[in-house]
Amino acid sequence: MSKTYETVIGLEVHVELATKTKIFCGCSTAFGGAPNTHTCPVCTGMPGSLPVLNKAVVEKAVAVGLATNCTITQNCKFDRKNYFYPDNPQNYQISQLYYPICRNGKVEIEVDGNKKYVRIHEIHMEEDAGKLVHDPYTDSSLVDYNRSGVPLIEIVSEPDMRSAEEVIAYLEKLRLIIQYLGASDCKLNEGSMRADVNLSVREVGAEKFGTRTEMKNLNSFKAIARAIENEKERQIDLIESGEKVIQETRRWDDTKEYSYAMRSKEDAQDYRYFPDPDLVPVMISDEWMEEIRSRQPELRDEKRIRYKEEYDIPDYDIDILTNSKKLADIFEEAIALGAAPKKVSNWLMVETMRLMKEASIDADDLKFSAKNLAAIIKMVDDKVINGTVAKEVFEKVFAEDIDPEAYVEEHGLKTVNDEGALRTVILDVIEKNPKSVADFKGGKEKAIGALVGQTMKAMQGKADPSEVNRILREELSK
């Protein structure tokens, strides 16, 4: 009888915090920039330089801890994690081992209608390392220290996940919480959110965990899902053939869909941690914590409940709109400016999504303002422009966030509301299309569509289709 196995997965998620300056110095955290231009003696590990903690890092870490139901360590410390690697300028990383800032949290995930909690063991603050750039032409490696000292939080889960689907649900939940808080943009492609996967397999029903491996170099949700499936199969094959799984760190190559061993997995003692002598303990008073708590925004789960009660839009719309803080913000701002919720939702769900797909951009990269979307909706409501013209104007707003009212005025796109002029055009269309007229009078209802189309063409799209329809029927009934 063949054995059945289950996968046991825990994650270490590194998130770069969206502060203007680094964790222990005043250098910029901006992504990009020429190599080694966002650096100073502190973040390049020069002898005699001293770190000074950035208060905003603590506030963002506490905010994430509160939103993930953690206990906040009100008296926490920094430690030195010693290791020697070219991108680590001091030969140690300032991190937190003994007193991490957040502990014992949990977030709820849902997969295929089943809800469960994933527990968070801890969240700690630390500094990022620099970046090694491998030059294939000279067969050498160069170091860029722009990223060195960028503030990170590391969110360490308990091994509570059992499938790639649960891992992705957990990561998406974390990403949305952190984006809603404004603590990070969580762009996996820019490295501001990175996940290391700790995975083992065991027979179903076994109490004891199997030997785990850690997988690094995962920079998209698809890569994470593929790496999990691959590693699960690799470990099962080893066990089935009587071999042992080795505890090690493996690197995932997404193009080859293959992982290979990097090094045997270190334990904490290998890093010779000790309290950082240059940094004082961080004391988080009750007052400071309450101040951070009072600034916490409405998160996605709360928004979904409120949208259902307040706006009377379908659950499908609610899920998509709240899945991006940017879309939710545009939606709410446009409503605050007087647009009807369902109309705003339709513009975001249909036209915006279509243009995003064509331009291959995410909701976070949207440039248009809610004010200009609300203005387009108002112009349609007031019959200043028709739906076809509105779509044309919105394409310009989507791309360049132009003033839609000025654009309509400049390009002469206003609907012609002169009934006399419209009737003249309609009579001309009736005269030139005897077949469609005869078909309509013979009971073919669809024939009127052709006449409306001809009228709209003659009016260069600047007529109200419902008004054209009304006048056409009036004239044809004579």
UniProtKB/TrEMBL annotation:
Give UniProt keywords alphabetically.
Answer: ATP-binding, Ligase, Nucleotide-binding, Protein biosynthesis, Transferase
Record keywords: Protein biosynthesis included? yes
Residue intervals of the Asn/Gln amidotransferase domain: 329-476
InterPro entries referenced in this protein's UniProt entry, alphabetically: Asn/Gln-tRNA_amidoTrfase_suB/E, Asn/Gln-tRNA_Trfase_suB/E_cat, Asn/Gln_amidotransferase, Asn/Gln_tRNA_amidoTrase-B-like, GatB, GatB_C_1, GatB_Yqey_C_2, Gln-tRNA_amidoTrfase_suB_CS
User: GO molecular function, one example?
Assistant: ATP binding
E.C. designation(s): 6.3.5.-
Reaction(s) catalyzed by this protein? Answer: L-glutamyl-tRNA(Gln) + L-glutamine + ATP + H2O = L-glutaminyl-tRNA(Gln) + L-glutamate + ADP + phosphate + H(+); L-aspartyl-tRNA(Asn) + L-glutamine + ATP + H2O = L-asparaginyl-tRNA(Asn) + L-glutamate + ADP + phosphate + 2 H(+)
**Subunit-level organization:** Heterotrimer of A, B and C subunits.
HAMAP family hit by this protein? GatB
**The name this protein goes by in its record:** Aspartyl/glutamyl-tRNA(Asn/Gln) amidotransferase subunit B
